[in-house]
Structures are given as structure tokens and as C-alpha cells.
Amino acid sequence: MRGLSMHSIACHNGFKVLQLRYEQGHPMLPALAPTPPPIYSMCVFLPDARDGLWRLTDKITCNPDFLRQHLPRSDVLVDDFRLPKFKVTFGLTLNDVLREMGVKEAFEMGKADLSDMTEDGARRKPALEQVIHRAVIEVNEEGTEAAAATCMMCLMCSPNPPPPPPSVDFVADHPFAFFIVEEVSGAILFAGHVLDPTIN
């Protein structure tokens, strides 16, 4: 994608951060939602140096507030915007993780009450056999267009018109990190990186 447009980008010393908000569903009625509705976004951390991803990830992992402190605070004019299509899938069996966290009875027949999870209710007490987590993150043309904003420029008569805001480039043609975050709580739901981006 090329051409002038507005994107939520922050420029820092040695890297840039792009924030793409996911489209939200209809908010619940205030009476039914005492807490603010969640806001999800994908944040792409792009180092300036082509081999700078590992130094950048070291900074991110050393400071728990690093990600939040470096998110964009406003939209900027972007001249050259390119984000590759990519798809990341991740699967993990959580049995051992849950047992280490203390969830043991759920895996032992007859010890945990899982009747709400079965069709025949309390007539039998099943046990969990496997707990599998799977995540899929995909960025394609539709996703990028849905997150993009349009800049409308108006010509006004003025003796000294203000200069246009400086534009930035965001070209993810080298390794970068990305995060799926929930902005209200600050929770990081998914973290990953793309080592071999291909710009079409």
C-alpha cells in the first residue's frame, strides 16, 4: 500500500510502533456493562536497523511497561506504508501447565464437578482428558484496509497557510515483532515475530 494516509504510529529512537485497532462489535448497554468494553489492537514494533529485532525484543522483555509506554498517542501522516501478509498459528496442550498451576482434580475421574460441561448434567462426573489452546493471527489486505484511516485535506485561503505535518514511512520489509493487546487492562494476549516478511 502506498500513498498518503493516516495511521497510528509512534517514532522512537531506533524503532517505530504501528497500532492497528480491531473493529469492535456493538457495545453493551451501560446498565449491563459496569466496566468499560475491551479494546483490542495489534501493535507492530519495527526496528530501524534490518538486524535490530533482537536488541529491540531485549528492551521489551526487560521492562514490563515498555510496550505500553511506547504505543502511539496520535495518528500521523504516512507516505509509504507497507505491511506484509502473514499468518501465524500456535497450538499447545495445556494439561501439564494447568497441573503445575494446581488444577489437578479436573483431570481425575470423579473428583471435580464438571457437570455443567456435559449434556447429561450431574448423572456422571467426567474428567478432562486434554486442554488444547490454539491461536491464529492473520494479516491480509482486508485486515489492513479495515484498520486504515483516510486523510482528507482541505484547501483554505490564508495568507500564511501552516506547513503540512511531516510524514513518516512504515515499511516492514525486515524482521519485526507484533503483539495483540487489550488496551483497557493492558493485557498482552499474543506475542510473536515475523523473521522473513515478504512484501507483495
From TrEMBL:
Which GO molecular function entries does the Swiss-Prot or TrEMBL record give?
serine-type endopeptidase inhibitor activity
Q: Which organism is it from?
A: Hordeum vulgare subsp. vulgare
Family of the protein in this entry = Belongs to the serpin family.
Q: Name one GO cellular component term.
A: extracellular space
What Pfam family does this protein match (any one)?
Serpin
User: Where is each Serpin domain found?
Assistant: 4-197
Sorted alphabetically, which InterPro entries does this protein's record hold?
Serpin_dom, Serpin_fam, Serpin_sf, Serpin_sf_1, Serpin_sf_2
The entry's protein name is: Serpin domain-containing protein
